[in-house]
Design brief:
- By secondary structure, the chain is mainly alpha-helical.
- It contains five helices and no strands.
- The chain has helices at residues 3-21, 28-41, 51-64, 71-88, 114-135.
- The longest helix is centred in the C-terminal third of the chain and has 22 residues, at 114-135.
- It is globular and about 45 Å long.
Length: 142
């Protein structure tokens, strides 16, 4: 069995295990378990970088965090959209509506270049700002 197939099987089993037996870690067990299964089954930058994935991710986060307030699922969706926006700025772009061959791309940067690192760092900082707002905004600043 090739290493990639074995890795995917292990990821699926861990994902199923988290969903089935990880009730102590609600809602993170549902989110992490589902994400492991999806990553094992879907190739990167194909269906995962489409409008369908945004809708699916939104539904998953919303349903998994119903009892925990609105900010978690909104932050997750915003972070996912930031990832798609960053990939839109590359020369490969994204295919937002497969099976249509149309690509959404703004050839502003390439990964690994100086410009790419600056833009990528900006998106990472935005993601950290969203995480801070969701999880740490109520903590007192010393």
């Amino acid at each position: 069995m090739p290493k990639r197939s074995l890795r995917n099987i292990v990821m699926i089993l861990i994902g199923v295990g988290l969903i089935a037996f990880g009730h102590t870690f609600m809602p993170w067990n549902m989110i992490a378990g589902s994400l492991l299964i999806i990553c094992a089954l879907m190739p990167h930058r194909r269906l995962t970088h489409s409008v369908y994935a945004v809708v699916g991710w939104t539904a998953l986060l919303y349903l998994a965090t119903l009892d925990y307030g609105n900010t978690i699922w909104i932050a997750g969706v915003l972070s996912y959209l930031l990832n798609l926006l960053a990939d839109t700025l590359t020369n490969r772009g994204i295919r937002p509506i497969p099976p249509l061959d149309w690509r959404l791309k703004i050839n502003l940067m390439s990964t690994g270049t100086a410009t790419g690192k600056i833009v990528e760092s900006g998106f990472i900082l935005l993601t950290f700002a969203i995480v801070f707002f969701v999880f740490f905004r109520h903590m007192p600043i010393m």
